[in-house]
Amino acid sequence: MKKKLVIIGASFLQLPLVQKAKEMDIETHTFAWEDGAVAKEYSDFFYPISITDKEQILLKCIEIKPDGIISIASDLAMPTVSYIANKLGLTGNSIECTEITTNKYLMRQKLAENGLPSPKFEFISNSTEIDFNIWEFPFMVKAIDRSGARGINLVSNHDELVIAIDEALDVSFKDKVLIEDYFEGTQFSVEMFSINGEHHFIAITDEFHTGAPSFVERMNIIPGNLSGSILEKVIQLTKDALTALQVEQGASHTEVRVNNDDIFFIEIGARLGGDFRNKLIKISTGIDIVELVINNALGQLVEVPKPTTTKFACIKWIFNEEDLKQFNHIQQKYPESVHEFVVFTDNFNNKVTNSAERYGYIILSSMDYHLLLLS
Questions:
Q1: Which fold has domain 186-374?
Q2: Over the stretch 198-213, which tens digit does the pLDDT of each residue have?
């Protein structure tokens, strides 16, 4: 009898999960609104229910009797995943873990309680609550419960602060926002996989952003340009942080900034990172992390395989018409390096302010790190 897997979400982020499950001959049950549900046509069963409607999804899951429940690259889906998993006795992280890892304020509190490197932070609802005897510009303003650079801004004066708070409140599902110190440094993400509380290092990613004010990711490269004792320190601190946040199962995505020997945590998600991390990991290491996520969710004990390839894998995003011209040139000059080239639209009317507004991407591989930087 086929295993049954419930998947929360049906956007392009979940499409690799649905396709891999089908490839593994697993029966898929996908929940999401129909608008933008590109994974619907690949699913065995599709239910037009909001991914945040935990109780209605639970009632349907009681009928389905699934062997596992999962979502990837979506913070919004994770509370439903952990709620259903805990109600039905399926493999997953605890409800408390999910509350902590999808709320930036609770995450900062837990890291600080455990003595892990984290910037100064405060929970506010408007600019009048800020004590400027303690806070100095510039600092970050963040929606506490969103990802993909939504509601995130670096502010340098009071006018920018008021605008940033309004923007964060507008996109947040809560009524307060987080402010925190801005830490200069090189940004990396650490991709991990946890099995019963044991954390396994998968890859280090170089993250390149647009910079202030919104820090939208422009390019990622795996493996990142970090090695030796500082990489070992980052890995160990990440494992300590995952333990502190009660992460027990599945993929995780941790963003850190490094400045010489100083390391600070930016964000930690108890789910697979977005921006097609799964594809970059597969190209660079040979590890099929989506398959690992599925097997873990089904309660099948998995061993994390050792890397089998040593390529550099890169994704570059289209922000404007010049990027599109450059990527067309790359495809013509280095066709053997291009794995995927997708353009969502060629209507470049709006400035990109968060990850969802980017216009497309190109995925490349090379044995030469610097070639990917320069191409």
A1: D-amino Acid Aminotransferase; Chain A, domain 1 (3.30.470)
A2: 999 999 999 999 988 8
